[in-house]
């Protein structure tokens, strides 16, 4: 999945989550973390290192692997933003991209992160520029009895919200859900393909949550009729045509009056499979 389509689809799924009460207009807690995934074909790179106390240099081999970083809402496990990177790498390097993207997509009050994101500039970014309360344990660097020099890192040492920080494990649950349902290895060979697969895994995770909500609250039939299935088959000619995306979607769903409202797609209260298909088709055609 290309990055522009991924962002549009993530926008639509988050908007749907707010509309169906999965997400509130403003979430209280969000968490960020990254995880590594297995790849059948991994690249290697070499680094010269010198052992502690030694004089000679030796070559050390590291294996690169696909790495996924997400920001999720703690209460619903809904993913708000995702960044695909290569590991091994420091977590702090992708904080700005992930946090800014998440805040502009959905507002939240507090962001929880582990010690891998500990830095004074990270607190400045979140608190002063994004108006988000940051809770990050100040564990980077040598641990001494002296307080950290930075204002916010010192605040984390003296007034750390331990009870609130306990909810950070919710992002670990998100990764567990993804790996349990979709697997923890990627079959793609190239870096570009692996990134696209990881983005697709993020979208699939959000759609699974939406699908469960539709099933619980709307009680609509899960399996569309044969006629509906035929309408959902978007032909190549329709995709390549110059028609407006909403007109194409409406035509294949038997509803030509389907329109855009306030920048988003107005989804009909129909079968679960129909609603999910409308969601995917809208992004693929725009």
Automatic annotation (TrEMBL):
One of its GO terms (biological process) is DNA transposition. Residues 29-207 form the Transposase IS4-like domain. Coiled coil: none annotated. InterPro entries: Transposase_11 (IPR002559). Pfam families: DDE_Tnp_1. GO terms for molecular function: DNA binding; transposase activity. This is Transposase IS4-like domain-containing protein.
């Amino acid at each position: 999945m290309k990055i522009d389509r991924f962002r549009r689809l993530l926008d639509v799924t988050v908007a749907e989550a707010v509309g169906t009460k999965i997400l509130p207009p403003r979430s209280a807690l969000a968490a960020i973390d990254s995880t590594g995934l297995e790849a059948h074909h991994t690249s290697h790179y070499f680094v010269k290192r010198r052992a502690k106390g030694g004089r000679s240099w030796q070559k050390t081999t590291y294996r690169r692997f696909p790495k996924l970083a997400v920001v999720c809402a703690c209460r619903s496990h809904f993913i708000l933003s995702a960044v695909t990177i290569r590991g091994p790498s420091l977590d702090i390097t992708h904080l700005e991209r992930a946090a800014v993207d998440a805040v502009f997509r959905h507002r939240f009050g507090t962001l929880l992160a582990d010690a891998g994101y500990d830095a004074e500039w990270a607190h400045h970014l979140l608190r002063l520029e994004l108006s988000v309360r940051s809770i990050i344990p100040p564990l980077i660097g040598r641990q001494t009895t002296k307080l950290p020099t930075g204002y916010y890192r010192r605040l984390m040492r003296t007034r750390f919200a331990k009870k609130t920080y306990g909810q950070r494990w919710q992002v670990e649950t998100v990764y567990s859900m993804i790996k349990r349902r979709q697997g923890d290895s990627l079959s793609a060979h190239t870096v570009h393909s692996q990134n696209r697969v990881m983005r697709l895994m993020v979208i699939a995770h959000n759609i699974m949550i939406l699908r469960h909500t539709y099933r619980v609250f709307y009680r609509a039939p899960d399996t569309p009729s044969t006629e509906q299935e035929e309408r959902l088959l978007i032909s190549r000619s329709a995709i390549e045509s110059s028609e407006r995306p909403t007109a194409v979607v409406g035509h294949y769903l038997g509803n030509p009056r389907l329109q855009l409202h306030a920048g988003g797609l107005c989804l009909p209260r129909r079968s679960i499979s129909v609603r999910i298909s409308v969601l995917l088709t809208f992004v693929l055609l725009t």
